[in-house]
Design goal:
- Keywords: Methyltransferase, Ribonucleoprotein, Ribosomal protein, Transferase.
- It comes from Palleniella muris.
- This is 50S ribosomal protein L11 methyltransferase.
- This protein is an alpha/beta fold.
- The chain has two domains: 76 residues, Alpha-Beta Plaits (2-Layer Sandwich); 152 residues, Vaccinia Virus protein VP39 (Rossmann fold), CATH 3.40.50.150.
- It is built from nine helices and 14 strands.
- The protein has a seven-stranded mixed beta sheet with strand order 10-9-8-11-12-14-13, sandwiched between helices. Strands 2-3-1-4 form a four-stranded antiparallel beta sheet. A three-stranded mixed beta sheet has the order 5-6-7, with helices on one face.
- The radius of gyration is 19 Å and the shape is globular.
- The protein starts with a strand and ends with a strand.
């Protein structure tokens, strides 16, 4: 899968820079951008090359709410091989979720020690996929999964990225886990990380939400750490696979997005059970 990176330059006062970064990412994700990295003068946004449109991107920043900010951008294609090499060379710091779980870089020089630090110690070789546990959304979901009794439960991981949430669910005792992602790199990375942790993910599928039409059975717990627009579009199909009395855990969006997500959830017969917010990133736990 080919990706492009758009380098967004934001000219604004230092005290407003981080707010502008977050607002800009929220705006252009509607143009198809999947992930963002902060830079010294703005952000870099990654988008599948087939979905990139300069006109579409520009349309989403014309009405930027902070009038003192000047935004410019240019886009270039990313060489998959070089991007992958960059990910492999960067070692992320261990992420600790309470005293129960530590997520660490498989390439860390401290890997042997970290592997025995907590009851659940998970090694991640991130490569090009999203989700090593460091992002607020992933960390919130991991924290929630650690609270579940997964005995006899079936779990669905929508947009599995590195496979971190699937692996946590399996380590917590889930009977069956199905995961899918539209990105081939993510599917491969989930296979790789599951093997790295001696965990079996029962199904790892390549494709969008439509792959669920070929999946047998229903799920007791569904996790989806995806951007707001994809959640709104995919939630009806996702909920069709939810068992009665099941739980849906959503993240990947800001607190301001909650009302429209709850409206969609209500239409589908779901109700809010819990909400968690970290640095404006939000997790919703919904029940049926």
């Amino acid at each position: 899968m080919d990706y492009s990176v758009t380098h967004f330059k934001i000219e604004v006062s230092e005290e407003l820079m981080q707010v502008c970064r977050e607002l800009l990412a929220d705006s252009v994700c509607e143009a198809g951008y999947e992930s963002f990295v902060d830079t010294d003068d703005g952000i870099d946004g990654y988008i599948q090359t087939q979905y990139y449109s300069e006109e579409h991107t520009l349309a989403h920043i014309l009405d930027f709410p902070i009038e003192t900010a000047a935004i410019s951008f240019h886009t270039e294609e990313v060489e998959s091989q070089n991007w992958n090499e960059t990910y492999e060379k960067e070692v992320f710091d261990p992420i600790r979720v309470g005293s129960e779980c530590v997520i660490y870089d498989a390439a860390s020089p401290e890997a042997e020690t970290l592997a025995t630090e907590a009851p659940i110690s998970i090694a991640i070789d991130q490569k090009m996929a999203f989700g090593n546990g460091a992002h607020e959304t992933t960390k919130m979901i991991v924290g929630k999964l650690l609270q579940f009794d997964f005995a006899g439960k079936r779990v669905l991981d929508c947009g599995c990225g590195t496979g971190i949430l699937s692996i946590v669910a399996k380590c917590c005792g889930a009977e069956h886990v199905t995961a899918y992602d539209i990105d081939e790199w993510s599917v491969d990375n989930t296979h790789h990380n599951a093997a790295l942790n001696n965990v079996t993910i029962d199904e790892i599928l390549l494709g969008d939400v439509s792959v669920l039409s070929h999946v047998d059975g229903v799920f007791d717990v569904i996790v989806a750490n995806i951007n707001r627009n994809i959640l709104l579009a995919d939630l009806p199909a996702i909920v069709e696979t939810l068992n009665m009395g099941g739980t849906v855990i959503l993240s990947g969006f800001y607190e301001e997005d909650v009302p429209m997500l709850l409206e969609k959830a209500d239409e589908l017969g779901l109700h809010e059970v819990e909400r968690c917010v970290t640095n404006d990133w939000t997790m919703l736990v919904l029940g049926r």
